[in-house]
Amino acid sequence: MLRISWTAKKTNGTVLEEAHTTRLLVSKIRKRQATFFGHVMRREKLENLVTTGMLEGKRSRGKQREKLIEGLTDWLKAGKSLEAIEATKDRKKWRTMIANAVKQGT
Hints:
Blueprint: H1 12-19, H2 24-43, H3 46-52, H4 68-76, H5 81-87, H6 91-104
Helix pairs in contact: 2-4, 2-6
């Protein structure tokens, strides 16, 4: 469409700027993750414990995986994960946080 050769050394960001578009897939995935996270946190059952990492036991060896809540707090710019967890209790506040994050992009 833009007639950019595959051998041209251009970053994805510059190609997206030339096409006057943004990354939609990543923001859609993050939005769905955030809505699911809010749903799980309001239920306060076993899924709540698993997603917050409050289960007891030994951690596996090696580099630890990034938790879902850490990725969402970075995306939502909520500061600490505790603030994000408290925000899920109020559905309107949680939805506005998600909407603001989607507007700003990834």
